[in-house]
Amino acid sequence: MEKKTQDTSHKWCPRPRHVIYVAHYDSMACFLKPNGQKQPPGRRLLRPISPDRRHRCLWPISTDGGLFGCRSSSMWIRLMSDSSVLSSPAMVKWLRLLIISLLCTGCLAQASAWWLMSQMQMSAVSGSSPALCDLIPGLGRRQRRLCQLHPDVMKAISDGIRRGVAECQTQFAGYRWNCTTVEGGGFGRIILKLGSREAAFVYSISTASVVHSIARSCSTSQISDCSCDRRRVGRGQDSQGEFSWGGCSDNLPYAISFARKFIDSKDRRSRDGRALMNLHNNRAGRKAVKRNLKIQCKCHGVSGSCATRTCWRALPHLSIIGADLADKYHEALQVTVNPNGEGLIPADHRRYDFLYGPKAALFQRKRINRAELVYFEPSPDYCEADIRTGKI
Fold first, then answer.
1. What values do phi and psi take at 295, rounded to 5?
2. From the centroid of its chain, how far is CA 232?
3. pTM above 0.70, yes or no
4. Highest mean pLDDT among 145-154, 164-173, 205-214
5. Nearest by Cα to 298 from 352, 343, 368, 249
6. CA–CA separation, 169 vs 342, rounded Å?
7. Pairing relation of β-strands 294-300 and 241-245?
8. 29 pLDDT more than 80
């Protein structure tokens, strides 16, 4: 008798209880029963699934690119419950829609899930209630710890991300790729899948806007851990003569330090080629903020004269930094991973193969400026509309 082949068109795995496979999110989740009570301890619906059981999944929840298919990732979660919870067809339908919505809002979790903070009300986080930090999908252990210890900084980061998205759209208004966002999903799959110029700009402007937001929040007393940068005291001098340091300087050192610890945390642990690209462009974003820091002064004297001046260091409007990074976008350098595994080198390094030894290594290091943007892959053709990748 001929053995029947398994029908893979079913929605659910053929088991007494419903099983749904979804991509892994590094966050806690708890299913609420219809009566509103939480699942008892040990009965959480999110459980790890062993590799030898993944083949049983007949219905993968997927996005347009199949990023969340059954076999496309090494990390999975099994969402399970007994028939008493999922016996109702309405409950099954509701749960399916819930998971798909979570996938759509979390499509950046594998790249830089901290961007998803812009979609959450970070003002609800308090030092004594870190629950919201646990609900941000994809945060690493150190990022979650920083979120719990510095809730007011998280609010500044959330605001910075939103401003970064708006600035990206402003800088690329009128371009084929105009930083279009997929609703609820940040900048769309293009930054997740391609190491393109656009990805380089998105990482740099996001980091720059976060640094800008934290520094401004410090100087306006919105963050309890920092205030004005008062390291410069005494007399100073510029093209207009001498002045006295005073006022309230934007606290850029604190902002850069915190942003580096928070944003670079996960990429520093992986250190693969894409992580090196992300780290480089994050650093370029921080340098753009520092490069545009200016001195502002206030005159003191009779009848508006400028007999003496008090000056402080202030950040410009984010649009100035955005324009600076947009110029870097057009001059971005294509790179590849060094064959010895140490850092990035220009993609056209083969034309310099006649150089050997320390001289070649020194030449290659000089070719990549820390302030410039780098990318791996050429940009796709944006003349063809595709909302999934931000092409309109």
1. -100, 125
2. 33
3. no
4. 205-214
5. 249
6. 35
7. unpaired
8. no
* Contact between 385 and 210 (Cβ < 8 Å): no
Q: What single DSSP character describes residue 354?
A: T
DSSP 3-state of 267: helix
Cα maximum dimension of the chain: 106
Q: What DSSP character marks residue 374?
A: E
Judge contact between 251 and 222, C-beta under 8 A: no
**Annotated domain spans of the chain:** 19-105, 112-230+246-295+314-332+372-389
Which is more confident, 212 or 190?
212
**Look-up: residue for tokens 């974003």?**
285
Phi-psi map region of 45: left, alpha, beta (phi>0 left; psi -120 to 50 alpha): alpha
Q: How far apart are CA 314 and CA 216, in angstroms?
A: 9
CA–CA dist 79, 299 (Å, integer)? 65
Neighbours of 42 (CB within 10 A): 5
CA distances from 346 to 142, 268, 275, 351, 356 (A): 32, 21, 16, 10, 16
Q: Which token pair is 174?
A: 């009128």
How far apart (Å, rounded) are the C-alpha atoms in residues 62 and 189? Answer: 13
Q: What are the residues whose beta carbons fall under 8 Å from the beta carbon of 170, sequence distance 6 or more?
A: 319, 322
